[in-house]
TrEMBL record:
Keywords, alphabetical: Repeat, WD repeat
Species in which this protein is naturally found: Lachancea mirantina
GO-annotated biological processes: mRNA export from nucleus
Cellular component terms (Gene Ontology): THO complex part of transcription export complex
Composition bias, Polar residues: 374-388
WD-type repeats, residues: 238-273
Name of the protein in its database record: LAMI_0F02696g1_1
């Protein structure tokens, strides 16, 4: 055996042992988490019903739940048209502001402006975008995108320069945030014949430098789009799912992205090769939402009757949310922390936090983050150089993940942190 082979095997063993140590650390930390409930107007209403009638059927589900980039604010909207802002930087209990809007207009999507800590945009299936000032919990501006259009999705790019919006069914418009949210250009999704109904864009996700936008459709396809200040170019359509793409999320170091679908599959795709490298097959129900932790080690998956956290490296189960907090609708990790917030279908929002007495997971998670950055820096050109319009992939090349690992593409390289 050559010295080079021995060195390679030794390095592989070290990485494997390191990953197993981090896995065990996360499992141990999750089990020690405390739960902190957000006592908003709905919680008080539900609590009174529980006290008087001994029932929890007061459902007012959360439609969307998002932290701002710094984690200093949490906002979520409900089916009754209300929105809640929580200032997490206030001393002691987070400061809460509740705003009741028109019950007939539901805020389906919340998206924070990364360049402004207090600016939040919401969409409600109308032709307008509402921009809020979270610090005062008031509406700052309302921008009409297109008269009589129906818009239910919107997402700021990571630098806050653009806002991607979806006008039903599959028109993606890029708005210039600094120029009064004016229209820059429009991308139309998959073209169809008049006899076939156009697929609808069901989810959006930006990579971390704002050069790539994913559009997930209700027919299971995903458009990978390259974005610039002047145009959107489709690089490829990925054919990896048979059901609606409900949620997508990028790894913070842009090594991979995770896709959740109504077909019960959660797939992990390498961003360099655009191949599916892992399928988390433990889900038996349609996936409602997913999220990726700050170091890319954990993937949270929420279904109708479960909310679990898995290892992105091996697909192993790390934590099951206790049944008393289920069924859930959303799970979101707090930026730059291991903690997360969970919204239950009954409407209650709970944050799972590291007890101050143990707090030992933070330095380890920081080590994982630094290790991930080191590996990313050694992987070659940036995504802007790797993914150009002259991509070697074609739409006809399907990368459908198979439940039987032996049937996967032989050229899908092994995924490692």
């Amino acid at each position: 055996m050559s010295s080079g082979t021995k060195l390679s095997e030794s390095s592989t063993t070290v990485v494997k042992n390191y990953q197993e140590a981090i896995r065990d650390l996360y499992r141990d930390s999750f089990l020690k988490f405390d739960q902190k409930q957000y006592h908003d107007e709905h919680f008080q209403h539900t609590d009174s019903k529980l006290t008087r009638f001994k029932t929890s059927k007061a459902g007012n589900p959360v439609l969307d739940l998002q932290f701002n980039r710094k984690g200093s604010f949490l906002a979520y909207s409900r089916c009754d048209g209300s929105i809640n802002f929580w200032n997490r930087t206030s001393v002691g209990t987070p400061r809460h502001t509740y705003v009741q809007c028109d019950p007939d207009i539901k805020m389906y999507t919340l998206t924070w402006n990364p360049s402004d800590e207090y600016q939040l945009a919401t969409t409600s299936g109308t032709d307008s975008i509402t921009v809020w000032d979270a610090l005062t919990a008031t509406v700052w501006r309302v921008f009409e995108v297109e008269k009589d259009a129906k818009m239910r999705l919107a997402s700021y790019d990571p630098e806050g320069k653009w806002l991607a919006t979806v006008l039903e069914p599959n028109r993606v418009q890029m708005l210039d945030v600094e120029n009064e949210y004016s229209l820059l250009y429009e991308y139309r999704g998959n073209t169809v014949t008049p006899e076939i109904e156009a697929p609808t864009v069901a989810s959006l996700a930006w990579n971390n430098d704002g050069s790539i936008l994913l559009c997930g459709y209700d027919d299971g396809k995903i458009d990978v789009l390259q974005v610039s200040s002047s145009e959107i170019t489709k690089l490829i359509t990925l054919n990896g799912h048979m059901g609606c793409i409900t949620s997508m999320s990028f790894d913070p170091q842009d090594r991979f992205f995770v896709v959740g679908s109504e077909d019960t599959m959660c797939t992990i795709w390498d961003l360099e090769s655009l191949c599916c490298v892992r399928v988390i097959e433990a889900c038996q129900e349609p996936i409602l939402s997913i999220d990726v932790s700050r170091d890319g080690f954990c993937v949270a998956i929420v279904t109708e009757n479960s909310a679990n956290i898995y290892s992105a490296v091996a697909g192993e189960l790390l934590y099951e949310v206790p049944s008393e907090f289920l069924p859930a609708t959303r799970l979101k990790f707090v930026p730059d922390q291991e903690e997360f917030a969970l919204s239950a279908k009954a409407g209650l929002v709970t944050e799972f936090v590291v007890p101050k007495a143990i707090g030992v997971s933070r330095p380890f998670a920081t080590d994982v983050h630094k290790e991930s950055q080191l590996r990313q820096s050694n992987r070659g050109p940036s995504i802007n150089n790797r993914l150009q319009p002259k991509s070697r992939y074609t739409d006809e090349e399907s990368r459908l993940p198979r439940r039987n690992a032996s049937n996967r593409r032989s050229n899908a390289r092994k995924f490692q942190l």
